[in-house]
Amino acid sequence: MNSTTLLEVNDLHVEVEGREVLKGVSLKIGEGEVHAVFGPNGSGKTTLLGSVMGLGKYRVTKGTILFGGTDITGMSVDERARLGVGMSFQRPPTINGVKLRSLLEICDGGDSAEIEALSEKLNVTPFLDREVNAGLSGGELKRVELLQLLLQKPELVFLDEPESGVDLENMALIGRASASVLGRERPMSACDGCPGTSCRVDVSLKEMKELRYKAGLLITHTGHIMDYVNVDRGHVMMDGRIVCSGNAGDILAEIRRSGYSECFRCLVKEGVRS
Ligand SMILES: Nc1ncnc2c1ncn2[C@@H]1O[C@H](COP(=O)(O)OP(=O)(O)OP(=O)(O)O)[C@@H](O)[C@H]1O
């Protein structure tokens, strides 16, 4: 798929608590493209998403982040969100004293009918009048996070392990909601003739714009989300660097076959590790 670059990360170095976690990450995501990041625990995947989102604990020491051609490296989270960057967290915090309904009204400019309808779809209506995320299970947290993104409608969507903690029945709900956040719910006529329900067909750039595909970057360990969201490109992150990029399905299959041992071999070959 040929498209205009929406996100461009150049040689990004990021420190957390004085320790360098990202050690020169470069990445480009085109309009309407979805990329996946794989990698072992602690390799820096969440740090990459959080740094592009502009979260306070991540300190950029070198490199730039461009969104739609604008340098957002020094912008606040609010400014980035207003420009169209949105993120679902791996472990979202509880917000004491704020009801979920109030937070959603801010996301959606107060359209209560849409809030009610989407809450019903995502099965989170009972939580609307509770404090944000208070006492929610892992799967419930993910559904609430996706609801916020559905209302916020970002142009670039970050999903940090959307399937973690989700049971098999709710995985279909999370998968469909993730596809919806990414603008990938097709009109029924577009699905005619597709086998099964996932409707995985390639679309042209023109069709992609008509369907209002959003761009996305998602982190997955299991790859389950890829049964619901067509991923255009995959990357492997090791020790704060992207060491491999290519077809996401092929990369996942290789990781399932050999773990990350092949990636470690690349790092040694390139002299990054001894
Ligand atoms: N607040 C912090 N203080 C110190 N170190 C931190 C902090 N937050 C993250 N780190 C460290 O940064 C490194 C990268 O963490 P990150 O969460 O980005 O990894 P990840 O690849 O997303 O891991 P996982 O697959 O386990 O979610 C880890 O070694 C982690 O311990």
From TrEMBL:
UniProt KW keywords: ATP-binding, Nucleotide-binding
SMART domains named among the record's database cross-references: AAA (SM00382)
GO molecular function: ATP binding
TM annotation in the entry: none
Record keyword Nucleotide-binding present: yes
Domain ABC transporter: start-end pairs: 7-264
CDD domains reported for this sequence: ABC_FeS_Assembly
Keyword set includes ATP-binding: yes
Family named by the database record: Belongs to the ABC transporter superfamily. Ycf16 family.
Family matches, as PANTHER family: ABC TRANSPORTER I FAMILY MEMBER 6, CHLOROPLASTIC
Protein name as annotated: ABC transporter ATP-binding protein
Protein species of origin: Dethiosulfovibrio marinus
Record lineage: Bacteria, Thermotogati, Synergistota, Synergistia, Synergistales
